[in-house]
From TrEMBL:
Protein name: Cupin domain-containing protein
Alphabetic keyword roster: DNA-binding
Record carries keyword DNA-binding: yes
SUPFAM superfamilies: Regulatory protein AraC
Gene3D superfamilies, alphabetized: Jelly Rolls (2.60.120.10)
This protein's record includes keyword DNA-binding: yes
Source organism (scientific name): Hungatella hominis
InterPro entries membership: HTH-like, RmlC-like_jellyroll
């Protein structure tokens, strides 16, 4: 089985994701509410937009199946530290050597561009990961790594 070292997600990255870190964004607060605006607009190909809530739990961080879409998909990580698998695709297949697992902390927003392979994050610890997902109604396409790959921490 292959292994890949878990990386902390970064706004200035070379893996093709648009990222807003928890400390970024505009905040407005009054005595009974707090509003944090996103600095990541998404220009979807349609106006039929859907939202959903994803909740994932801890499991052995081994990945092989990924998916990609023809449009953007936005993830707002609300709680729990997530291990988020991503890879580049070309001609409906994962590009060799592009697979990464990113540690994403609560408050981070990630815009996944069309064609970028990803899959459901795994909770890094005992706290479940909760995510709000915003995207158009669209199909998904499964792609697979050549072999199962385990995410490991850097020693």
């Amino acid at each position: 089985m292959k292994t890949v070292v878990i990386e902390d997600i970064r706004a200035d990255n070379d893996y093709g994701l648009i990222v807003q870190m928890p400390e970024e964004g505009s905040v407005y607060q009054e005595d009974y509410f707090y509003w944090k605006g996103s600095s990541i607009p998404a220009c979807f190909q349609t106006n039929r937009i859907t939202t959903g809530t994803m909740k994932t739990w801890h499991r052995d961080p081994v990945f092989q199946k990924l998916e990609y879409h023809d449009d953007y998909e936005k993830f707002v990580f609300l709680s729990g530290n997530a291990l988020f698998p991503v890879a580049d695709t070309r001609d409906g297949a994962v590009c060799a050597g592009s697979f990464r697992v990113l540690r994403v902390t609560p408050g981070t927003e990630v815009l996944v561009p069309p064609g970028k392979a990803h899959f459901m994050p795994v909770a890094e610890g005992d706290e479940p990961v909760c995510i709000t997902v915003v995207c158009p109604e669209m199909p998904f396409y499964h792609v697979y790594l050549d072999e199962e790959t385990r995410a490991v921490t850097k020693e």
